[in-house]
UniProtKB/TrEMBL annotation:
SUPFAM superfamilies: Adhesin YadA, collagen-binding domain. Signal peptide: none annotated. One of its GO terms (cellular component) is outer membrane. This is Trimeric autotransporter adhesin YadA-like head domain-containing protein. Residues 14-35, 64-86 form the Trimeric autotransporter adhesin YadA-like head domain. InterPro entries: Adhesin_Head_dom, Serralysin-like_metalloprot_C.
Amino acid sequence: QNAYSKGLYGNTPSVAVGKNSIANGGTAIAVGTYATVNEVGTSFSQGIAIGGGALPGQGATVIGDQAIAIGGNTKAFGHSSIVIGGDDADRMTSTRAVYTDITTGRPAVATVSDAVKALTGYEIK
């Protein structure tokens, strides 16, 4: 049967490994399938999430303080965020985007890849 892991904060260090993992505040860390770290009323702290995916929030996540996310459908959101991975960059870069052209100040439409290059000079690889 699928385990539901949830390390809650308080004066207890968190850890959670497995299917519906979450880990909330404290010293957190989550690891597997739906990973997460700080949802549910959030109380930020040490973060880290590491992977997973295939539905509800599609894995990793985090939200604040010391953040970090790593794999799957990562997101890290705030404070000292670091995200590594993201398995759908190829789809994202070909998505059409509306942005403000920095030379004309007018709206422009391009792929995300072309918009980033126009705005920063860098290519997404």
